[in-house]
Amino acid sequence: MRIRWHARALQHLCVCHAQVHVGGMVFSPGSVSVVSDSLLTLPAIVSIAAGGSLLLIIVIIVLIAYKRKSRENDLTLKRLQMQMDNLESRVALECKEAIVLHFDLRFLCPRDQRSPGNAHSEAQA
């Protein structure tokens, strides 16, 4: 048994003519019409693909811009942290020098060597 299909396709309709060969006899059961279930036409599919591609490109551009801004903010934060560390080091050095100077002055001028009549030196101590 051989079956031959002769199809003629319209935009959404396919008309098929079948012939069945059995032995030496040929039967033609008739034509079969098949309607496509597809609701989207070619322009609609192309439009959807173009819109999706455009959306993807916009998302990629936004991600690149976010990454650049994030990197810039990280560099600014590192620079500010270095400035704060330098400032803290300078303040610590100045405090250390002030404490050393204070102790040096106390050792240079002990209490028992001050004159007892000098009220000004007592008020400062």
TrEMBL record:
It comes from the Eukaryota. Keywords: Coiled coil, Membrane, Transmembrane, Transmembrane helix. One of its GO terms (molecular function) is semaphorin receptor activity. InterPro entries: Plexin (IPR031148), Rho_GTPase_activation_prot (IPR008936). The chain crosses the membrane at residues 44-66. GO terms for biological process: regulation of cell migration. Gene3D superfamilies: GTPase Activation - p120gap, domain 1. Residues 70-97 form a coiled coil. One of its GO terms (cellular component) is semaphorin receptor complex. PANTHER family: PLEXIN, PLEXIN-A2. This is Plexin-A2.
